[in-house]
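Z., the sequence and structure:
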Amino acid sequence: MTIKEQAYGPQEEAVFLDTIRRWTAQELKPRVKEYDHADRYPTEIVEQMKEMGLFGATISQEYGGLGLPARLYAQVVMEISSVWMAITGIFNSHLMLALAVEKFGTPAQKDLWLPKFASGEVRGGLALTEPDAGTDLQSIRMTARRDGDDYVINGTKTWISNGIEGSAVALLVKTDPKAEPRYKGMSLFIAPKQTGFTVSRKLEKLGYKCIDSGELVFQDYRLSKEHLIGGVEGQGFFQATGGLELGRINVAARGVGLAEGALRLASDYAQVRKTFGKPICEHQAIQLKLGEMVTRARAARLLTLDAAEAFDRGERCDMEAGMAKFFASEAALENSTEAMRIHGGYGYSKEFDIERFYRDSPLTCIGEGTNEMQRMIIARQWIKRHSIA
């Protein structure tokens, strides 16, 4: 099943989403329990995603990508996440690497790497987080020391998606550890797996199974200067954070998918499960839960599409992306919890899909910036846009 669309009007968008919908029903839904319970990397599914072009979803068509607008990309993520959220991380983390190169790379870097990213020949992600540096990226300790035309890199990255199964990462380092302010001493490299780059361990998780999360160790890892994104030192902090708006729209879309998927599972179950002689959907207590779940899911979808449309217009949308990510992720968590309660004892069983939604949804409240941080971003941007000074 291959998607090859050159333009994305309403008709093309509908065809595209129908293709995704059929794929999730035919290929994902029957197999998700098998993969999730075994926490096994879905190699066969990844190959299908390569054939469909999902690893080039947001990469420009001139480099072999699909060139999807953010609005359509968000809907793709929603559809897939409503069945199996975890696998969206396999191509989203990869697309953040591609975005850094396409947005900030030199012409030579774009010509070399983007076609390989778009085809899925080279897959990877962002290597930003360290054991003592997550939200505060300026606290990273990994260093890159200049040695002639090369850089020698030492340090550790952790919680890196696609770090084990992938073949390259966008690697954030300090080329000038003494720089003040600290962000001026940070640089971003395209780092393929080679001598000096090892995976020390796979990190086990509550949910978000099957996608590999690894700890990466770099010991006297040598890269030529051609791997420095943009070719200029000191730009890494802005390059690494330059895709946060799209990244937060993606996480919001995952939240929408989870919220809508949990709602679907709950409403289906409530119509077949009977107590006191009637389906539980006819009991007021269940109706109150379903009413709130429907509203949360719909509001989350509209907020996410609003942020995506602002992104597509080229507008600054950190507030809109922050609102979407905050609300949709909380909707995912609340709907998954309520859906489990509607299922009663069966909701706690691995035989039912809702337990996976319950395990997967908390991640959306943490990924791409915690929801505590999102609220601060929203408030600061609101005041800035509505200053009375």
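DSSP finds twelve helices and nine strands in the chain. The first helix runs from residue 10 to 28.

Let me know what you think.
H.
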